[in-house]
# Entry
Amino acid sequence: MKKYFYWVLPLLFASAVGNAQTCKEILEDAQKHEKAGEFFKAYQKYDIALFVCPNKKDIENRKRNAVKELEKLKDNAVKAEIKAKDNEQKALAAQQTTKKILDKFYKANIEIGKQREIADKAMEEKDKIVNSSFFIHDKFGLVYNRGAFRFIDKRGNEVEKLGTWQWAQPFEARKKEAFNNFVAIVIDKVDYTKNLQKDFKLLDTLGNTFPLAIDLSYLNEKTEAFIYGDDDGTYFPNQIIGNTQLEVLGLIGVSNIPSTIRNLKNLRILVLVGEQTEQLPKEIGELHNLEYLDLELDNLKNLSGIIGKLTNLERLELRDIGTANFNINELANLKKLKILNLKGLNLESEEEENIIRLLPNCKITF
# Structure
């Protein structure tokens, strides 16, 4: 029995005497209170019953049980209070965490706004560069940036495959469409104490470079690309034939291409442009390493027996070949051909269909 219950005993006894309840009635009231969970009231009834009822041992046990239940209620109340405080602390912690998250979110939004402003300014600068750039073949812009020449596309993005160069100038070969495979003349390291032409390289659209000569005086055993001639017409210089290391040969207005061109076994790219050339030597068909052939020959008379022998061709451009005879069936031998431009031929629809059938995996332009 807890001490803090003793002070109520006289009052309980006085109440019991005043009401003059029987033992049975008191115990029934106590049990009703127990069922209702009112253990303090049950305890009071059992305390009164000790003065009225004869079976004090049983009542004492019931009273003790009521006290235990009161202790449980007290413990549960204490636990509930502790849990409530714990939940309150957790709620405060969650509130603080939420505040930190919101603070970070707010700061992140501010940073995003700053980055957006930076990006917008960068886009403005990029647009300025694009709008002020000269675009080679209407595709690649040549710009000088961060101490080097670079190439950009029309969105202002750097074309990384074309590299960066200490010196560069657009290569458009007198505006001839036949040379659209080349982008610029470039130099790795500039030595201004000597003639720059000695270090020229020809850069193509894939990023490949070839040591270049654009004058016979600079043609030597290290030269891989040679562009020669002019629109007014000129003769084929015999010095070319001795440079069998050449991989790229571009001739403009050259009329007398000799049969000895067969000696240039390393040629991969051959571009022939002009109004003076009427005949091509069939020995061109012996250039078996040729991958790219581009012809813009307004007065060409005959082309048969050449194209079909160039079985390693990947790109064939017949922009304008005059009235040259050309056997379409020769195209069937070009198994590696990926790009075919036949704008220079006046073909019937049946002939076009036949070419498409002969070259099902080739991109063809009529």
